[in-house]
Design a protein that fits this description.
The chain is mainly beta and about 150 residues long. A hairpin with a 2-residue loop joins strand 1 and strand 2.
Length: about 150
């Protein structure tokens, strides 16, 4: 299993025979949270970029149930990685506080999104510069809490 910044590729059990395939995904079993919201993206073409935000509380699993797309994740510290989603029995887990861009959608792409939280616009960070400042602020706060204030 590939992991980067807490982002993980997941593979789900497949069942199939001559009638076709069945993939089962269960919250708190196949993914690391209880599913509170489900939505999907379709009809986007290769020039469209979706997402373009980070979440303070929500975690996600993204699964291309049809077609393919890419997900670029960034941590606000200069690190980024691209994940390709092209198999309906795999997904990518996105923890909270990861910037996400979904793009390069194939014509037949249906990107299923499983979320750990109900929609709350207040927990979204929609500007990358604000996201970087938020991450920097969290790190400074962590230093102060741990007693590393630089004061002797």
């Amino acid at each position: 299993m590939m992991e980067y910044m807490g982002v993980k590729m997941l593979e789900f059990p497949q069942h199939g025979d001559e009638r076709g395939h069945l993939v089962i995904v269960e919250g708190l079993k196949d993914i690391p949270f209880e599913i509170k919201r489900v939505f999907y993206i379709y009809g986007s073409d290769a020039t469209v970029v979706r997402g373009q935000h980070a979440n303070k509380r929500s975690e996600f699993v993204l699964i291309n149930v049809s077609g393919q797309s890419k997900v670029r994740v960034r941590d606000g510290k200069g690190n980024e990685k691209v994940f390709s989603l092209s198999r309906p029995h795999t997904g990518v887990y996105l923890p909270r506080l990861i910037w996400k861009d979904m793009y390069d959608f194939s014509e037949d792409s249906v990107l299923l999104c499983l979320a750990s939280e109900h929609y709350d616009p207040e927990e979204y960070i929609r500007d990358y510069g604000d996201f970087v400042k938020y991450i920097e602020g969290m790190e400074k706060n962590d230093e102060n809490i741990s007693g590393n204030t630089g004061i002797l």
